[in-house]
Amino acid sequence: MHLSALLALTLGLAPVWAVPTKGLAEFDPQSGAIPIERFHEFEKDLKVLKPRRPKKGTKPDFGLKKDIVLNWDDGQEDIIKAELTASWKEQDEVSVINMADFASALEKVDCTAPTLSMIFSRPELFVEAQKSWEWINGGEKNSVIMFANHRSCGEDKAGAPFRVTGIKFDDKQLTAYAIVEEIANLETVIPDGELVVDSIADIDEPIEEAPEDDPEQADASKVSKRQTVSITPSISLNKDFNNKNIFSIGSGTNYLKLDCTTCGSRGKINIKLYTRIRWFSVQESYVEFRAQEVRAFVNLKLDGKGSKTSKNHKVLFPITAYGFQIPGIATLRLAADIGVGYDASLLGEGQVTWGATAMLTNPSVMRQCFKGCNHINTGWQITTQQVQPAGSGSLMAKISAHAFITPKAEARIFSSGYEVGIALLAPKFDGTALVAANSDGGICAHPKAILGVDIDVKVGLQCYVYAGSNYQSPNWQRTLYERMWTLYDQCFILARKP
Prior knowledge:
- It holds the Pfam family DUF7029.
- Keywords: Signal.
- Residues 1-18 form the signal peptide.
- Residues 92-183 form the DUF7029 domain.
- Residues 235-492 form the DUF7223 domain.
- By secondary structure, the protein is mainly β.
- The chain folds into two domains: 91-190, no CATH class; 196-496, no CATH class.
- It has one helix and 25 strands.
- The protein has one helix at residues 123-133, and strands at 16-18, 47-48, 50-51, 67-73, 80-87, 94-98, 106-110, 115-120, 143-147, 161-170, 175-182, 192-199, 228-231, 234-236, 239-240, 244-251, 254-278, 281-326, 330-360, 364-371, 376-378, 382-413, 419-437, 449-467, 476-496.
- The chain has a 15-stranded mixed β-sheet that branches.
- The longest helix is centred in the first third of the chain and has 11 residues, at 123-133.
- The radius of gyration is 30 Å and the shape is elongated.
- The N and C termini lie far apart (60 Å).
- The model is unreliable at 1-33, 35-42 and 200-233 (pLDDT under 50).
C-alpha cells in the first residue's frame, strides 16, 4: 500500500502519533508529555506483517539460545520490514527459542495457553527436541521465551511470545505439551534488545517540480542493554488540487463562494518514532518529523454579490492511508482530514483573486521528546512569492484563509502509547481587498486607471505541537513558530482608459 495519497492538500501538516513507551510520566502540559488518544476501530483493516520463516530444506534447530533475531515483512510489497534482536545472556535461568527454526518438524501446533501442544512429524525429530528441551524442567526458575511461528497457530498468533515454565512429553503421540503463559507486554521480559520497524522500499513518488504552466512556481548497532523502536515511513506531498470549491452559500442576488483555482504541493515528510529501553525501563523516547523540499502554490478566488459572511473549515478529503500490525509487538495507523479553513465576507458585487507560492525551510525538523532527551525544533519557516491579484466589479472583501491537513496516527509498540502532533498551516492569508471601477478614471490615484484592486493581505504560517482530534481546538498545544508578514499592501491597476 502506497502512502503517496496521504497528503493531498498544501503545506498543511498535522500528524498525531501515539508514542508507546513504558514508564513515562502521566500527561503534564509543562513537561510536554502528551495524553493518549485512541481510534475507535484501531484494530480493523490493518495489514499484518508476517514473520519470516527459514528457507525450505533448512534442518530443524531445537537448540535453546541466549539471543534471538526475528524478522517480519508484508510478504509481497516489501514496503515495511521489522527486526527484533534480543538477548538474555546475563540471565542464567532464561533461554529463548523461535518456533520457526523447527516448524518444519511439526505437523500441528495448538498455540493457546496454558498448554501449548506440538505434534511432531517423525520419532527421531521428537527425540531430538526432547533432549534439547529437558533443561526447562531442570531447575525451579528455568524458563524459555518461545515465539510461536507455525501456520496452524493462525495469523493472530504469528510471532506471539510465550513464557514456557515446564514441558511434558508423550512418546506414543509424538507430542510435547509446554506449560505456558502468553506474554502480554513483551518489553517486560527483554532486558537487552533492539526492535526496528521501518520502510525499506521507496514507497513514494519522487519530489516533482511545480507545473510548468504555473508562472509562480518556486524552485542496528551492537546490542547493549537497550531496546530501540524506529518507525520511519515517508509521505509524499506531490499533489495538485485545482478548481476545488471551498464553500458556496446563498444564490441569486445574495451569494458568496470561495474556490481554490490553481493549487498544489510538492515535497516529502519523513517520520521517525524512537524508543530505547535499558533493563526493562524506558531511557529515551521521542517522535521526529522531517520535511524535505516542501513547497506549495495556492491561488484563491472569492466571488459574490450582496452581503455575505462565512466562517468554518471544510474537509475535502478524508483519507485512511496506511496501517500495519505485528501481533503483540507493534501497530501503526495513519489517517488524514484534508481541507481549508476560512473566514471570508463580501459586500458588493464581483470577485477578487490572490495567492502565493511558499517554500518551507529545508530541512525542517521537529523532535518531541517524551523522556531522556531534548526537544529539537529547526526550520519550520517559509519564504513566499506573491501572485499578482485580480478583480472585477465593485466590492469590499475580507479574505482570511489557510490550507490544512490533519493526519492522525496511532502507533503502539508492545502495550502502551502516547500521542503527539505537529500542525503546520501555510500559506496562511489574512487581510482585506477593495475592488473599484470608474469609467472616468482615478482608480489607484491614477488619472487613466478605470479598474483596480486595493489589497492589504498578510501571509505567513502557524506551526505548533498539539494533541487531540481537532487541530483548531486541541486538548493541548505548544507553539513552534508563528509569523505573518505583508504580502500585498498596494493598489493594483487592472484596466486603463485608452
